[in-house]
Amino acid sequence: MSKKVFLPLIGLALTSTVAFGVASSVNYATSPQVHTYQVDFFNNYLREDLTLSNGTKAKGNNLLYKSVEAKQYQLLEKPEDPVRARYEFQGWYLEQECETAWDFANDKVEGNFRLYAKWGIAQEDEGTEPPYTPPSTVLDNSAATDYVINSIMNFKVNNKVVKLPTSALAKLEASKDNVLPLMEYKVKAGKTMTASFANNKINVTCGSVSEEITVKDDSISYTLDNSSYETKAKNYEKNAVTEESYHVMLAGSSSIEFWTSSKEDLNPIVSYNHGIGGTTIEEWSEKLNQRLVYPYKPKMVVYYVGINNVINSKQDAATIWNNLKTFFDKTHADLPDTKVQYIMMNLIPGYKSYFNVINAVNAQVVEYQKTNAWLTLINPGTALLKENGEPNAAYFRTDGLHLSYYGYVIWGGIIRESIFKGLEN
User: Fold this and answer.
1) How many angstroms separate the CA atoms of 287 and 282, rounded?
2) 1-125 architecture in CATH?
3) Cβ-contact 219, 172 below 8 angstroms
4) Residues contacting residue 88 through CB under 8 Å, at least 6 positions apart
5) Torsion of CA 255, 256, 260, 262, to 10 degrees
6) Quick check: pTM over 0.85?
7) Do residues 67 and 112 make contact, with C-beta atoms less than 8 angstroms apart?
8) Contact 302, 251 (CB under 8 A)
9) What is the Cα–Cα distance from 29 to 19, expressed in whole angstroms?
10) Where are the domains of the chain?
11) Fold for the domain defined by 223-424
C-alpha cells in the first residue's frame, strides 16, 4: 500500500467573520431577521503564484468548486466530495493550510466564508505511458512481391515518387543511413530489407531486388497565406529532428497553442504541442496536418479545430460541419493506424451569439462518431459551464474567448484522462 503524504498548502487571508465550530445560542423566537450568507467551496490543489490576464496577482489554488447560499444559524449541507486524479479527498477546512475542519453535524453558519478541500496523495507516482507496438511490417507470403512500400511518413508513394514537406525532409536527412523506421512498408517473413537516403533518392534493397524512390521537396504546396501562422509553423518544423515518432500530438488552434503546460500536464506521456492560434479547419486539413502531424507518425493525435470557423470566418453550421467531416475523413484515410481524438468546441462567454452554431456542429460530430469508431470525442467544455448551462467566465481570460489558468486545470485534466484511456485500449 502506498504511503499517504499530505500536500503543503499556501494560505489566503479570510476577510469574513464566522463562528468556527461553536454552537449558536441564539433564541430563534426573539432573534432579528435571519440572514442568508454565501459559502464558497474551493478545490485547493494548485499552489503556484500566477498573474491573471488583467495583471492581478492570485494564488493558483483559489479554484471554485461550488458556491451555495446558507441560512444564518443553520447547519451547512455537505456537498458531494470533489474528485482529483491520484489523490483522495479528506474533508473541508476553514484555511487553505487545512488545520480546522468544518463539522457539518454541529457547526452553524454565522457569516460569509470559504471552505477548502484537503487532499492526501493516494498514488505516489504518475504511472507509466502505456506501451505501443507499431503496425506490423509482415507481408503475406502469398503476395506476388517480396515487399510493398505504401508511404513515407504518411505521404503516399506514387510511381516511385514521394513528395514531402520541410519537416519530413529534415527527418529523412537525419536518418539517411536507415530510413526504414520512417516508412510504412511490409516485407515477407524471412526477407531482409534495407533503405537509405542520398541525393534525393531513397535506395531500397530486398534480397536481389533494388529500387529507387525519388524524393521531391513539396514544401511550397503547404505554405500558409497568413504570415504569422507560417512563422509559427516554421518554428515547429525546426524541432522536427528532435521530436520522435510514435508519440502523442496535440494540434489545432489557440486553445492548444496556449496550453503551454501540456507537456508537463500529460507527463509521463510523451507529447508534442503544435497548436497555432487563429487557424481554421481548412488550414489543418489542407496544409498544417501535412507539415505538423503526418511526418511524426503519431500513435495518437488530439485536435481542437473549428472555433475560428465560427467566430473569425463566420461560417454557418452546415459549412463548418462539411469542412470538419472532410477533415475527419481525410485524416483517417492518411493516418489509418493513428488513434484520433477530437475536442468538441467550448461554449465561450464572450461570444454567446454563436452558441447555436457551436451546439449544432458539436451535435453533428456526435452523430458522425457513432458510425466511425476510430474517432474518440472529448467534451471538456461542459465542465466549464455553470449550473444554468452558461459558460463560467472565471475559467476564461478577460477576452471571453481563451481559457484562463484555472480553465486549463479543468479542461486539460479531462483531456489527459481521455488520452490515457485511449492509449490503454
Assistant:
1) 8
2) Sandwich (2.60)
3) no
4) 4, 119, 120, 121, 122
5) 120
6) no
7) no
8) yes
9) 21
10) 1-125, 138-219, 223-424
11) Rossmann fold (3.40.50)
